[in-house]
């Protein structure tokens, strides 16, 4: 008999039955007006226009939290090899998903530029920003950026009002609609055409049977 032992160390978390369980408190919701007045949307927009679009990436170094840029200096961050998924951006729209005392959660719909519109589909990402500082020094920084995994993207015209630097100032709430492929539009049209054709055939068949019955009736009493 051969016995193969596992010589690796185990790192199982010990179970402490004599200690109370650690329960994470639910985030406390707060009105979005304060965060918006402090420029949280402008920070998110500048982050997308630089780090995500990969243009002037060095400018986004001061827009992210120490957690997101752990292990990076401003010089190494500027090399574009950063923990932020890029996107060939043309325009972006923003939707507020949650406003809390310690963070703001936005969803960002990204639309590809003309050079990539046939190869890169539109996408939706989650971005979380956290507040830093107090009083007049209070400001917002991007703490995470990850794909949302949603298939629907917001509709409506792209762009919108811009600030003095030309950055889009997006609304906090927008309407969301999924895009419908033109091939799906053919399905109801085809079904309607088939239905009309079936009705016409049934009507023609009834007319023909009535005509034959009338002819037989007349032939009987000649």
Order of helices and strands: HHHEEEEEEH
Averaging pLDDT over every residue, what do you get?
Answer: 77
Number of DSSP E strands: 6
**CATH structural class of the largest domain:** Alpha Beta
Q: Helix coverage percent of residues?
A: 25-40%
Number of continuous helical runs: 4
Overall SS class: alpha+beta
Largest sheet: 4 strands, antiparallel
Low-pLDDT stretches are 150-162, 166-187
CATH topology of the largest domain: Nuclear Transport Factor 2, Chain: A
Strand content: 15-25%
Overall number of structural domains = 2
Indicate the radius of gyration in whole angstroms: 31 Å
Topology, please?
Elements (H helix, E strand, L loop, with lengths): L32 H5 L2 H13 L21 H4 L11 E11 L4 E9 L10 E10 L6 E9 L5 E2 L21 E2 L4 H39 L2
Describe this structure in words.
The protein is an alpha+beta fold and 222 residues long. The chain has two domains: 33-178, Nuclear Transport Factor 2, Chain: A; 180-222. The chain has four helices and six strands, in the order H-H-H-E-E-E-E-E-E-H. The chain has helices spanning 33-37, 40-52, 74-77, 182-220, and strands spanning 89-99, 104-112, 123-132, 139-147, 153-154, 176-177. Strands 1-2-3-4 form a four-stranded antiparallel sheet, with helices on one face. The chain is elongated, with a radius of gyration of 31 Å. Residues 150-162 and 166-187 have low confidence and may be disordered.
